[in-house]
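Researcher: Excuse me, tokens okay?
***
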Amino acid sequence: MKKNIFADTVLKGLSLKKKKLPSWLIYDSKGSEIFTQITKLENYYPARCELEIFNTHKSTLSNLFSSTPTQLIELGSGDGKKTMALIRQLIEDGIKLQYTPIDISKGAIDNLVKILNQNFENSSLKITGLVADYFEGLASITENKKLRKMVLFLGVTLNNMDIPDAKSFLKRLHQLLNKEDCLLIGFDLMKNPKLLNQAYNNELFEKFNLHLLDRINECLQANFNKNLFVQQAHFNPQSRAVESFLYSTCKQTIQINSLNTNIEFAQWEDLQTEQSFKYSIQDIENLACESGFKITENFYDSKRYFVDSLWQVIK
């Protein structure tokens, strides 16, 4: 992560009348590790639903690779647990596979590459892990017209973006892909708000959000005291998003030495740290169309809580 981007984002977000920071700031190696622990919680359904989708539909997905030589690229690969189910199926089906996971966390990439090399030691799998942001990583991949790209953008990463930012992200992604390249993208579907509130409120989520303060302290020489903040997530019916906040338990002044600035917090003032938008199928269809893609198939879990939507580039 380039320090000036981190610093500019923090300054901009903390200077707002309603303080708000994007969740990607939380993700260093430790942040990624905490989030991996969250995905294993019983109430946190997205990872479990998506793993079910991959295990149920891996043969159908494998057929896409057998029809045309395809390079598998994953944006924000994390621990790669879901992707491993697909990779195993592809290897069992005799498909030679080039897999390129891209993540900003060096620890996550190193661990994933190590595990894949151990699990598929004597296979035809070729792995090139890239520590980069999504677009830097994609741009650095050598153009190979003989290989169709299948880009995986799993989990709830897109759901965490503001809708205008999500549209901008997808249009930029479209520009880096060729006609008939594919994108398999995860969407959390709208459901009972009680389920949503249960999923996003627990000790690990609080630890994850408070890690943002550690990152600002470490990167920007600030003096946030985590013990003076508490976390709570709420479902917002107007935005149809689960929004997570850190609340200051007292009036306090935060010094951020690298930015040469002080930030004031009133007692119980909130700082928004996360958001996760919940989509309808119509929302997803509109988003694909506006971004230069067409939906070829939707893959659901058994409860239809989540969908991995398969898009194809149209130029």
User: Anything to note?
Assistant: The radius of gyration is 20 Å. The longest helix spans residues 45-67. DSSP finds ten helices and 13 strands in the chain.
